[in-house]
C-alpha cells in the first residue's frame, strides 16, 4: 500500500468512521497480529526508531529513513558527524544478521519444547549448524536478562556439573590440541569429590519463586557473594547448608541465617515410612528440587552441555519454568 492510501485510511479511522467500523478494523488488525507476530514486532521497533531517530552505533538522534533491505525491513542511515552508518530494527540486537524471519517463531517453539537439532532440521528445514547458531543467540539473550531480587525466605545452595570441553580440543584456534584425555558424555569426573573437574552453579531461590543463579569459575566466598549478595533484600531469612560464604552474605545484607542440617533417618524409620519432613518447617526442598530439574535438563534432555555454554542453558531452564509464550524469546532477543 502506498503512503497516500495509508494516510487516507488513517484519517478516515480518526475522523470519518463510525464506532462499529473502527471495531471491525481493530478485529482485522488483531488477526493480522496473530498471523504475523514477528513482522509486527519488527515493525513496532522500526516505528519506534522512526520516532526516536536514535542511531544504535553512535547514540545520536540523527537517523533518517533510507529505503528497505532485502528482507523488506525499513533501513535507516545516520546523519551524525563521523558516523554515517546504516541500520535496521535488528542491527546490534541478538537477531542481527539472522535470515529466514518466517521460521523464528517456530524455532522459538522448538526451544520451548526442548527439541533436538536433528528434529529441528527434519521438521523446520533448518540445518543443524544454523540451528546451533540460532539457539546460541536466543539463549544468549535470555542469559543477559537482569537478575531477580530475592526476599522473604531465601534458600541458597550450589550444584555441580562435570567440566566439559564438548566440541573443542584446541584445534580451531590454530593451536595444537590441549594436553588432556577426551571425556565421553556420562563418564563422570576422574578425581573423587569436589575438584577442578566440577563446575559449581550457585542458586538462590525465594518463596515467591524468584531465582538468581550463576555459573562460577571456583567455589570461593567472593565468587558466591558476587552472584548472590546484591540480589538479596535486607532483613530476609536465609536458609543454607552452612557453607562458609552463606553466613557472610547474611551478615552483609543484615539477614538472619539458618543452617539446615541434613536429616538422618535410620533404616527402621525408612521402612516404616517416617522420612517425611515437617510441614511448614524451614528446609532446602525448593532449591534441591530446582537443582534436580536443572541436572535432568542439562545432563539428560540436552545430552550434556559444554562448560563454555553452561550459563546459557542454565538461563534457559529458569526461563522455561515461567512457561512463557515462544514470542517472548524473540522479544528478548530484539530488546
Ligand atoms: Zn550514528
Tell me about this structure.
With 335 residues, the protein is of the alpha/beta class. The chain has a domain at 153-304. It is 41% helix and 13% strand. A five-stranded mixed β-sheet has the order 6-5-4-7-8, with helices on both faces. A hairpin with a 5-residue loop joins strand 1 (63-68) and strand 2 (74-78). The site of zinc ion has 8 residues, from loops. Zinc ion is lined by residues 55, 57-58, 60, 78, 80, 83, 85.
Write a concise synopsis of the structure shown:
Helix content is 41%, strand content 13%. By secondary structure, it is of the alpha/beta class.
Any descriptors?
single chain; 335 residues; three-stranded antiparallel sheet; 13% strand; binds zinc ion
SSE layout:
Blueprint: H1 3-16, H2 19-35, H3 37-52, E1 63-68, E2 74-78, E3 86-87, H4 104-112, H5 117-124, H6 128-143, E4 153-162, E5 198-206, E6 211-215, H7 221-228, E7 237-240, H8 245-252, E8 256-259, H9 267-271, H10 285-301, H11 310-321, H12 327-334
The site of zinc ion has 8 residues, from loops.
Order of strands side by side in the largest beta sheet? 6-5-4-7-8
Oligomer: single chain
Following the backbone from N to C, one meets helices and strands in this order, namely HHHEEEHHHEEEHEHEHHHH
Number of strands: 8
Largest sheet: 5 strands, mixed
Give the end-to-end Cα distance, rounded to a whole number of Å.
Answer: 28 Å
Radius of gyration: 26 Å
Silhouette: globular
What share of the residues does DSSP label as strand, in percent?
A: 5-15%
Structural class: alpha/beta
Compute the average pLDDT. 87
Percent of residues in helices: 40-55%
Ligands in the model, by name, code or SMILES, are: zinc ion
pLDDT below 50 for ≥5 consecutive residues: which ranges? none
Contiguous helical run count? 12
